[in-house]
Amino acid sequence: MSPDHIVEIGGRQLKLTNLDKVLYPATGFTNGQVIDYYARIPPLLVPPLSGTPLPLKRYPRGVDDPPFFETDATKHRPE
């Protein structure tokens, strides 16, 4: 298992955990690989989503178990 990592984004520190946890069993993609992917695509992803409310569908036990919608923004969200 990989160690936790602390990254700084926009002046905020984020603790990234469970980076080796397989998120997509069919392909073997891990949390770390998904985070890396999303870190690389903001130039393509952010412009069309800017100003759009974004509900979060959470899969705390992986994509093979039931998800839930997080409807309230967490207190740790960016401005």
Which features would summarize this protein structure in a list?
globular; two-stranded antiparallel ribbon; alpha+beta
Outline:
With 79 residues, the chain is of the alpha+beta class. The protein has helices spanning 31-40, 42-49, and strands at residues 5-9, 12-16, 22-24, 29-30, 56-58, 68-70.
What do these coordinates show?
Strands 1-2 form a two-stranded antiparallel ribbon. Strands 3-4 form a two-stranded antiparallel sheet. The protein has helices at residues 31-40, 42-49; strands spanning 5-9, 12-16, 22-24, 29-30, 56-58, 68-70. The relative contact order is 0.14. It contains two helices and six strands; from the N terminus they run ββββααββ. With 79 residues, it is α+β, with helices and mostly antiparallel strands.
Task: Tell me the layout of helices and strands.
Layout: E1 5-9, E2 12-16, E3 22-24, E4 29-30, H1 31-40, H2 42-49, E5 56-58, E6 68-70
Antiparallel strand pairs: 1-2, 3-4, 5-6
